[in-house]
Amino acid sequence: MTQQVHPFAQVNKQPRSDEESGTLTSDQELKRKKRIKLAIYIAAFAVFQTIVILVFALTVMRVKTPKVRLGTDVTFQNFKTGTQASPSFDLSFTAQVGIKNSNFGPYKFDSTIATFMYEGVTVGQVIIPKGKAGLRSTKKVTVTANVNSNALQSTASLGSELGAGVLTLNSQAKLSGKVELMFVMKKKKSAEMNCTMTIEVTTKAVQSMNCE
């Protein structure tokens, strides 16, 4: 007996309408735009972060050499000078040494000696005690100096200066210390002072102060 095989009935697939196709296309386009926008945001953030890091490295993390200067506010306690014919000097005065720290971290320095000279000859010394200049600030240290002409071998130039009514002294010092950044980074920095002070003998006052 022969069995009759019936073919499966075909499933009729309805084609998508134009409205459904349009909805899918617009969803895909929306997702694509969101992805592009997200990529732009990520790229912009990466560029901004790079700029911030670069600025931080060039400003905050850059270690500058502190500056040491002798202030012009000098008060004389003793002021004795000779004449052009018999030149000499014997001075006692207080002055302020300023340590300017422009870094974004404190500068800690050791004690050192500041030397006063007349034409390269040492005529007096003072001690600058150890201390700390805060971040982006100036530390002022008051010192008392006693200088005299006892060590001078020749007083010819001194006689000429006193005859002109002035006395020129040079002060030098070198500070050794460390700049601390972010509480973890420490970098050694030496700061030097080299100032020339011109004193007017008649008024017993500082006429000018030039620091290199």
- Terminal Cα span: 123 Å
**Uncertain stretches of 5 or more adjacent residues:** none
Query: What is the overall pLDDT average?
Result: 87
H/E topology pattern: HEEEEEEEEHEEE
Instruction: Write down the oligomeric state.
Output: single chain
Quick one: biggest sheet? 7 strands, antiparallel
β-strand number: 11
Structural class assignment: alpha+beta
Radius of gyration: 39 Å
Shape: rod-shaped
Number of contiguous helices: 2
Helix content range: 10-25%
Portion of residues in beta strands equals: over 45%
In short:
With 212 residues, the protein is an alpha+beta fold.
Write the layout of secondary structure elements.
Layout: H1 18-58, E1 67-70, E2 75-81, E3 89-101, E4 107-109, E5 112-118, E6 121-128, E7 131-133, E8 137-148, H2 156-163, E9 166-181, E10 185-200, E11 205-211
Can you characterise this structure?
The chain is α+β, with helices and mostly antiparallel strands and 212 residues long. The protein has helices at 18-58, 156-163, and strands at residues 67-70, 75-81, 89-101, 107-109, 112-118, 121-128, 131-133, 137-148, 166-181, 185-200, 205-211. Strands 4, 5, 6, 7, 9, 10 and 11 form a seven-stranded antiparallel beta sheet that branches. Strands 1, 2, 3 and 8 form a four-stranded antiparallel beta sheet that branches. The protein is rod-shaped and about 110 Å long. It starts with 17 loop residues before the first helix and ends with a strand. The mean pLDDT is 87.
